Automatic annotation (TrEMBL):
Residue intervals passing through the bilayer: 44-64
Keywords per UniProt: Decarboxylase, Golgi apparatus, Lyase, Membrane, NAD, Transmembrane, Transmembrane helix
Annotated family: Belongs to the NAD(P)-dependent epimerase/dehydratase family. UDP-glucuronic acid decarboxylase subfamily.
Source organism of this protein record: Brachypodium distachyon
InterPro entries: NAD(P)-bd_dom, NAD(P)-bd_dom_sf, UXS-like
PANTHER family per record: UDP-GLUCURONATE DECARBOXYLASE, UDP-GLUCURONIC ACID DECARBOXYLASE-RELATED
GO terms for biological process, alphabetical: D-xylose metabolic process; UDP-D-xylose biosynthetic process
Residue ranges of the region described as Disordered: 1-28
Protein name, UniProt field: UDP-glucuronate decarboxylase
GO molecular function, one term: UDP-glucuronate decarboxylase activity
Length: 408
């Protein structure tokens, strides 16, 4: 007999076996208002404090950055290099950093005096020189200066530096030196100038080329103005220097017109002073060295050729004034005083030894008969003119030459 099985009726589980109910989460607050956000964690206090600081800065800014009470409205940049003369009156925390300057040929005669002045005014200076005519002794007194650096380098090869100003002086400047290796001389004038102009363009530096009165050649105009184009032998023994500098001027102006480089050109006339090479073939150094050595002073030709002579400190002042001016150039930098070779020999005799004698020799090729600068442009636009007369400056050079000759 089959036994019938009936499903048990479904019963609700006992409370003891019922699953635990989930813990209910607290209700999330509604969206925060911006007022609530500011009040949270004292944010409002910090917002008000920041606004107070910003407002105070802008209200007090004219008083902080003004250079003098009468110049409150000056809006020139705080770090403008043109205002360096007033830097000492700017609060210590806002003084501009020193300029970074490179001087090619900075171990030479003119270059070393320029380096002295740049360091004296607080700039940082890098000297680049291959020591063909420059001497380490000319800058040795700066070697422990943390703002001075000396690099042995030939500008015919490119170099990468980070500077604000480039004074390009590198080139043999005396007949003895530039005739010794004329190919090297013109390469320095052309390739060296190209490299330094390229550097100026890449880094946005201001560039000054030291050119020469030799670009006028044997002039048909006297005195020589910057507008005079010159009378130069392009294939003569001096053309490596004369035409080399004319080409350097061309490159400089082309980089200005085509590349926007801020350039300056200084046409330097005869310069003398301490640290000149003893035997560089230039007339003042020749006469002084020969007189000190008790040798006859050599006059080439009839001695009636004329030259102008400026002391090196005057030239350096002119170079620095031109660099910081707004004028492109070229500018004649020289002493408009004029001496014949015989007159110069007489001044040297009076300074060193009245018993000195003169020896005449044939004149050299392409030697200019007249040389005298018209410096009207420099006087009017730069406020510059030479201060040191030949009778004042020559004894300073003689003292330096006498010591060096005694040390030979």
């Amino acid at each position: 007999m089959k036994q019938l099985h009936h499903k048990s009726p479904t019963h609700a589980p006992s409370p003891a076996h019922a699953p635990a109910s989930k813990t209910s989460k607290p209700a999330r607050p509604g969206p925060r208002t911006w007022v609530g956000y500011l009040l949270l964690e004292q944010r409002l206090l910090f917002v008000l404090l920041g606004a107070l600081i910003a407002t105070s800065f802008f209200l007090l800014r004219p008083y902080i950055f003004s250079l003098s009470p009468s110049n409150v409205t000056d809006r020139s940049p705080i770090f403008s290099f043109a205002a360096r003369s007033s830097a000492s009156r700017v609060p210590a925390g806002f003084r501009p950093p020193p300029r970074r300057v490179v001087v090619t040929g900075g171990a030479g005669f003119v270059g070393s005096h320029l380096v002295d002045r740049l360091l004296e005014q607080g700039d940082s200076v890098i000297v680049v020189d291959n020591f063909f005519t420059g001497r380490k002794e000319n800058v040795a007194h700066h070697l422990r200066n943390p703002r001075f650096e000396l690099l042995r380098h030939d500008v015919v090869e490119p170099i990468l530096l980070e500077v604000d100003r480039i004074y390009h002086l590198a080139c043999p400047a005396s007949p003895v030196h530039y005739k010794y290796n004329p190919i090297k001389t013109i390469k320095t004038n052309v390739m060296g100038t190209l490299n330094m102009l390229g550097l100026a363009k890449r880094i946005g530096a201001r560039f000054l080329l030291t050119s020469t009165s030799e670009v006028y050649g044997d002039p048909l105009e006297h005195p020589q103005k910057e507008t005079y184009w010159g009378h130069v032998n392009p294939i003569g023994v001096r053309s490596c220097y004369d035409e080399g500098k004319r080409t350097a001027e061309t490159l400089t102006m082309d980089y200005h017109r085509g590349g926007g480089v801020a350039v300056r050109i200084a046409r330097i006339f005869n310069t003398y002073g301490p640290r000149m090479c003893l035997d560089d073939g230039r007339v003042v150094s020749n006469f002084v060295a020969q007189a000190l050595r008790r040798q006859p002073m050599t006059v080439y030709g009839d001695g009636k050729q004329t030259r102008s002579f400026q002391y090196v400190s005057d030239l350096v002042a002119g170079l620095m004034a031109l660099m910081e001016s707004d004028h492109i150039g070229p500018f004649n930098l020289g002493n408009p005083g004029e001496f014949t070779m015989l007159e110069l020999a007489e001044v040297v005799k009076q300074t060193i030894d009245p018993m000195s004698t003169i020896e005449f020799k044939p004149n050299t090729a392409d030697d200019p008969h007249m040389r005298k600068p018209d410096i009207t442009k420099a006087k009017q636009l730069l406020g510059w003119e030479p201060k040191v007369s030949l009778k004042e400056g020559l004894p300073l050079m003689v003292t330096d030459f006498r010591q060096r000759i005694l040390d030979e």
